[in-house]
Amino acid sequence: MPRTTTLVFAGDSITDAGRDREDAASLGDGYVALIARAVGDGDPGVTVVNKGIGGDRAVDLAARWDDVLAAQPDVLTVYVGVNDMWRRFDSDDPTSAEDFEASVAGLLQAARDAGVERLVLIEPFFVPVRDDQVAWLDDLNGKRDAVRRLAERFDATLVLLHDDVTAAAAENGAPAIVPDGVHPTPQGAEIIADAWLRAHAALVPVDAAVTAVSP
Fold first, then answer.
1. Where is the SGNH hydrolase-type esterase domain positioned along the sequence (predicted)?
2. Is residue 195 classed as helix, strand or coil in its secondary structure?
3. pLDDT digits 0-9 by tens, 6-50
4. Pick among 3.20.20.150, 3.60.20.10, 3.40.50.300, 3.40.50.1110: CATH of 5-212
5. Quick count: other Cβ atoms within 10 Å of Cβ 207?
6. pLDDT per residue over 65-84, tens digit each?
């Protein structure tokens, strides 16, 4: 039997996208499901696993990292950071860029130690929808810079996203892309999926199929 390739996506609510955690076949209705459909459906050669949980920061992801690695990813995508920014402003619970970088570095090192072949980092985005939120970007920029450094340090594929989402929101209006600045509409999810697929065209052949599995 040919060896399967497992694509695991770990992150917060943008990855979670309302998946039913009681349904092993649920990928949610966000970018992970779009990637699965784009790669194909019905061939056991590739498996997609959604490990997103809404509200997660890097430290929350670290607390459940053993469960993520238990899915035995060949390609592991990590998409986290916006909640590390958000909690500073809605809960007075800041995460410095240095602490964020250290937490994500620990995740990536553990993945490498577990034999994960390919790592993918998605750059976090935020689109201010209120005037007072513009200053929040200063906090996020430190996390974005950390993700870029980590991609280089761990030889991970970097999926750039912030500028694409910002431009789409400027052109179409934030309500069409990210009504609250964070959670994407279907059109916003397509932007994320397209960015991932462009970055990984060589990793996942377009004619490969996916068996959707989201334990």
1. 9-190
2. helix
3. 999 999 999 999 999 888 678 999 999 999 988 866 566 888 999
4. 3.40.50.1110
5. 8
6. 999 999 999 999 999 999 99
> Residue 169 in contact with residue 178, Cβ under 8 Å?
yes
Helix (H) or strand (E) holding 175: helix 174-177
Q: Which residues contact 192 (CB under 8 A, 6 or more apart)?
A: 14, 30, 31, 34, 122, 161, 165, 184
Q: What is the CA radius of gyration of the chain?
A: 16
In this prediction, residues 91-99 reach a mean pLDDT of 97
State the DSSP string of 31-70. HHHHHHHHH-BS-TTEEEEEEE-TT--HHHHHHTHHHHHT
Longest dimension (CA), the chain: 57
Phi, psi of 167, deg, nearest 5 = -65, -40
pLDDT of residue 62: 97
Structure tokens given for 212: 């959707």
Residue 7: its H or E element: strand 5-11
